[in-house]
Amino acid sequence: MTSLPKGRPTFCAIDLEALRWNFRQVKKKVGREVKILSVVKANAYGHGAGQIARTLAASGSDAFGVASLEEGIELREGGIRSPILILAGAYPAQLDPLLRHRLTPTVCELEGLRWLERLARRRGMSLKFHLKVDTGMGRIGLSASEIDSWLSELSELKALKLEGVFSHFSYAEDVGGSYTQNQLKIFRRVLRRLREAGYAPSLVHLANSAAVITLPSAHFSMVRPGLMLYGIHPSPKIADKVTLKPVLSWKTRILQLKGLPKGSSVSYGRTFVTKRKSLIAILPAGYADGYHRLLSNRGAVLVRGKRAPVVGRVCMDLTMVDVTGIRGVQQGDEVVLLGQQGREKISADEMAVWAETISYEVLTSISARVPRIYHSSKEE
Prior knowledge:
380 residues, Lyase, Ornithine Decarboxylase, Chain A, domain 1
């Protein structure tokens, strides 16, 4: 069983066996010939980048994707030796640490291509890079429609070596949709133009988690799973396509129990007033831990296998829940904020609905002050 941290009992339990299971589902979907770039940006979606990346590397991940130079350096310092791609690009002042830590930059626009080439030439260095093409996401990347203007620039490169080319789906969960299919068509057209011009990048990647699951024609030579590695389906529409296991559970314990008479207000602003004699449990977790304030009076937690509603406003460090209808509740009882207890479960998707956001934000918002404790359900 997962042991509690000493002191404040609010923590995230990270099940590494569930992570390994999810990675195996990716491999089953893409087959042996397709490489896997595991996306571990944003502290591995809140799960702890170092331990997550080491576990995935041991499971066979071919490469890793991060958002920034700093995230890449953190992985290198954590012992990761696999290729690391900086998905959101790099900046001129970062070239030296980028070279020192053997990180691979993404080139998203022509000026970046030019300065990277110029600086690498001055140092007499050869540097591999990946080219990002915008096929309809409307974010960073060289526009596919302007390929004539930037394709000629590639022929001028001496220090830079085109290792990979990629794009990003806007709506891959709608695999049959015309927009997704058109993005794929545009990407294939770009690849054809590159090959006609004599370029043969070995790493071609387009499929995010949704496309890994639903769109085999977009797997190419590499895929970029993110959310599915952590046991969450990119969309409820495709939940029946693959079995995933949530990796993260968020837990705490009851700090105090308080009996209140009818008509008592709870927390700031008197947004909740008891309508009966009530038993309120105070939890040592709040919005500074990443438990969204929007969960005030609309969220729920699990206590003794039962749902207990959040009452009153979520505070910076404390949250109150109504346990009046739950028998035998005691101070120190385990409380599940996110995860399963008995037969009941609160998923990241459900919490996201309460907080008017998406599961990605629920996970990445969990504060660094919440310890991550790693365990393996296979061994328990």
